[in-house]
Amino acid sequence: MKKRTKKRIGMAISAAVVAIAAYNVYNIRIEYAKAGSEYDSIADAVRISEEPVEAIPIDDEPAADDSGFSFEDDGPKYDIGTYPNLVIDHEALKKTNPDYVGWLYVPCLEISYPVVQGTDNDYYLHHTFENTENVTGCIFIDSECEPDMSSYNTFVYGHNMKNGSMFGSLRQLLTKSEILSEDPYIYYYTEDGVYAYRAYSHHRVPPKSGYFSYVKSHQEYSQYVDMALSDRLVDLQTPVDKQRNSIILSTCNGSGESKQRLVIHAINIGHYR
What is the pTM (predicted TM-score) of this model? Predict the structure, then answer.
């Protein structure tokens, strides 16, 4: 009798666990759908013009280093000396969310999202661009980085969503590095112009590694870039001018004890209008 009772209890517990898991999956799918609808609506307000924009530098070019690299020599794959012409209503996005700071566009990974910067790095892990509580969160710049992209390293975070949204497409690079090799360019659009970057390294790192340290001097930055180059999964054939700062895209990868961060390092190749 006791054995039957224990068996029934075990079956009941198993059934409860399955029911809870199914409920959680259902809720996650609902949240995915809600967030997807929200971001689709926002994305509809942004379009890519068929005509590329000529890349006219806003700031003076820094002194050339040994690489001899310049934007004019090797511009974005979209076309040399141009960048994709995204038509973005920055003012409207700012009204929707005062924390809006720019728009991130990574063609090869089909990433195209508004970017925010909050007072901490927790809020936008669980809130969308329209401040709705949701597991998908929002793409955001580290709260300690300069909003004008002038930090040595600007960290940009996004969730590794199972449906490929947000930074979910980054995991493709673990098996298909050629995606980034063939088109290594990242664009960041602001009211003040467009920042173009070229990826020079991507790899997995522990969550508390030195890769998330705030660089305070050019010497530290130079060492940081060398570290990223030494750990790269593949050689992206990107000349790196250390007079230029970097953008780092970061997302979670793995779970439990194997949980790490998947990151892309990209060098600033110009600020244009």
Answer: 0.81
